[in-house]
């Protein structure tokens, strides 16, 4: 078992004005574009995740969900053919390979969101409940959503053998100069946090009420133009997560840091993203 020891991070720093009513309070979900949905789902099951089957949408999109009780999730999604703007977008991404396609942020008050974005990212657009950015915008990978806690969710959909409880962190690899101000303006508090890709380094981080976004340089992208490179999943215990993961990775990398004890799972074992399974310290 590989072992990595990290010391506590330095004190937090401020970046931008203090937001009393943050537009974003946490993470929503990560759609992960995959060419073979069944194979990707089997990989996540092997790592100890329970999956909720999706449905075939009218545009041909198929998906499966790694869901958590708070409404956060990882979504495995594929589009066999381009039938509209969204599926054409997915087909373009899938041509480059499997990897996260987008990042959804949780914005509880969608009606208040446009006023915040008007000065921070005026290129946004709204399509019903969805707030996002056009294809030619550097922020196209980002959208704002409301967490999907469905009446069809069942206890077995949350019964992850690895002890998974919530999506609590995302790693972005981007040199977009507008991102720091945007994350601060949405309510993130500037800090530093650990990211391992695979070398562990302290990086700039923005802390929201219910999650973190850690910013890495663009050269950490696995596929060019795909800035979402990692996800942090809170688990019930390191022991439970290890028992599940060792069925796939006999000697996983374990990281001991200020915020908890974690298992690091590389992209070739998932569907193109780094996964950190973290037992958070009380």
UniProtKB/TrEMBL annotation:
The keyword Glycoprotein does not apply. The keyword Lyase applies. One of its GO terms (molecular function) is dioxygenase activity. Keywords: Dioxygenase, Lyase, Oxidoreductase. Residues 1-79 form the VOC domain. This is Catechol 2,3-dioxygenase-like lactoylglutathione lyase family enzyme. It comes from Nitrospirillum iridis. The lineage of its organism: Bacteria, Pseudomonadati, Pseudomonadota, Alphaproteobacteria, Rhodospirillales.
